[in-house]
Amino acid sequence: MVGTLRYLTILWPGLPWLWLRGSLPGIVLALAFAVTLDVAMVTTWIWTDLVELPFKLAAWAGAAAIWLLGTASALSAFPPPIPAGVGPAHEARFVQARDAYLARDWVGAERRLRELLRDAPTDGESQLLLGTLLRRAGRLTEARDALEALARSDAGLPWRTAIARELALMATTERAPTADPILLPLATGEASEDDRVAA
Fold first, then answer.
1. pTM reported for the whole predicted model
2. Is residue 34 packed enough to be buried (19+ CB in 10 Å), middle (13-18) or exposed (0-12)?
3. Is there a single domain that holds both residue 67 and residue 103?
4. Most-buried pick from 24, 38, 92, 100 (CB within 10 A)?
5. Cα(64)–Cα(34) distance, rounded to whole angstroms?
6. Is 81 part of a structural domain of the chain?
7. Distances (CA, A) of 162 to 6, 132, 183
C-alpha cells in the first residue's frame, strides 16, 4: 500500500522529489506546474473575455508540456525509498566508519560516512559522527552546517544533547584567542654571559 502511495506522487510534476526527498528542484517544478495550470483554468473558465484564445491555448500547452516532462523524468529516475530502519549490513558499515574515526583516519571515515548517508539520509548517528569528524578536522563551517541541519531534523531528536555539546565545543574553539607562539632559544655551544652569572 505504501509503495502504491509513493507512486501516486508521479501524478503531480515535481512531487516525487519534493515529497520524498524535499529537494529544491522538486518544489520549483511543482510550483511552475501549479501556476501554469491555474492560469490555464482561470483564463478558460472564469475570465473568459479578458484573454484571447491563443493565450488560453498556450497556457494549456504549457501545463501539458510541464506535466509530460515531469512525469517522464519521474518515471525514468524515481527516487528510491529512504530505508525505514538499518540492517546488519548498515550497522557493519557504520562500525567501519567509527573505527576509522577512532583511528584518526579522517578521510576514510568521512568517505564511509558519506556513503552511509547517501544510502540512508535519515541516519542520525551517522550525521552526528560526520559533524563531529568535521569539527575535529578543523572544518568548523561544514561541521556547524551539518550539526544544525541534524538538530532541525527528526533524526536529530535522540541526539539533542550530543549536538548541543558539539556546537558548544565549536563556539569555544572559535572564541579562544590565538596565543602568540612561544619561541625557545636555540641551543648553542657557548653559554651566554647571563647563563654564566646565573651559574
1. 0.51
2. middle
3. no
4. 100
5. 11
6. no
7. 34, 10, 38
C-alpha–C-alpha distance, residues 145 and 159, integer Å: 16
* CA distance linking residue 155 with residue 180, whole number of Å: 42
Residue 185 pLDDT grade (very low, low, confident, very high; cuts 50, 70, 90): low
One domain, residues 138 and 169: yes
Please identify which residue in the block is written with the cell numbers 538499518: 86
Residues 65 and 107 placed together within one structural domain of the fold: no
Give yes or no: residues 64 and 111 share one domain: no
Nearest one of 7, 188, 25, 141 to 81, comparing CA atoms: 7
Phi, psi of 116 (to 5 degrees): -60, -45
Domain count along the chain: 2
CATH number of the CATH domain containing 152? 1.25.40.10
Picking from 65, 72, 81, the residue whose alpha carbon sits closest to that of residue 2 is: 81
In a domain, 108, yes or no: yes
Of 174, 168, 169, 126, whose CA–CA distance to 150 is shortest?
Answer: 126
Whole-angstrom Cα distance, residue 11 to residue 5?
A: 11
From the list 60, 76, 70, the residue with the least C-alpha distance to 14 is 70
